[in-house]
Amino acid sequence: VMSVLNEAWRRSTAAIAESEERLHVTLTSIGDAVLATNRHGRVTRLNPVAEALTGWTEADAAGRPFEEVFVIVNAESRQPAEDPIGKVLRDNVIVGLANHTVLISKDGREIPVDDSAAPIKTADGSVSGAVMGFREVTERRRAERERLALLEKERTARTNAETAEQQLRLALEAVALDGQLAIGGRL
């Protein structure tokens, strides 16, 4: 009996280790940043991309409150943005950040990010934590600003062209009217 129990324990331990290794490899391979918390909002995992963006190592972040590791503000107002993990854990919903959110890394860098967060649920449906994926969007936001600037230039050019056309039409009408007066005055 002891031998059978020992073998079952060994297989279970090996299966858990294999599962942990698959999870580690998966998280390490993902191109976006991934951060996970327990049900109390304390960091349990950071993948390498999350470490690079936040400036925290997984070892240093482990057990810390999420909002200490993932500091976000509204890029325009500079006010703290809503805590996405807190909302997930409180409301048991999937959430995403509003546009123009900036991550303040541990070393003070400001990094525009987009994210979404979701509850981590156990087999019985209870929430055991939250997971958030996020990515740097500096280039996308730069492209958006350039696009808006081009649209504004196009609007200005169109308005200027319409104004010039209207002035030309008025000038032509004035010349035509002067011509008619001059011809009418000689007859």
Layout of strands and helices, then pairs:
Layout: H1 2-29, E1 33-38, E2 43-46, H2 48-54, H3 58-61, H4 66-69, E3 71-74, H5 84-91, E4 95-96, E5 101-104, E6 110-121, E7 127-136, H6 138-186
Antiparallel strand pairs: 1-2, 1-7, 3-5, 4-6, 5-6, 6-7
Assign an overall shape. Answer: rod-shaped
- The total of beta strands comes to 7
Number of helices: 6
Write the element-wise H/E pattern from the N-terminal end onward: HEEHHHEHEEEEH
Estimate the helix proportion, in percent: 40-55%
Q: Structural class, judged by helices and strands?
A: alpha+beta
Features:
187 residues; alpha+beta; seven-stranded antiparallel β-sheet; rod-shaped
Structure description:
The protein has 187 residues and is α+β, with helices and mostly antiparallel strands. 53% of the residues lie in helices and 22% in strands. The protein contains six helices and seven strands. Strands 1, 2, 3, 4, 5, 6 and 7 form a seven-stranded antiparallel beta sheet that branches.
Short description:
With about 190 residues, the protein is α+β, with helices and mostly antiparallel strands. The protein has helices at about 1-30, 50-55, 60, 65-70, 85-90, 140-185, and strands at about 35-40, 45, 70-75, 95, 100-105, 110-120, 125-135.
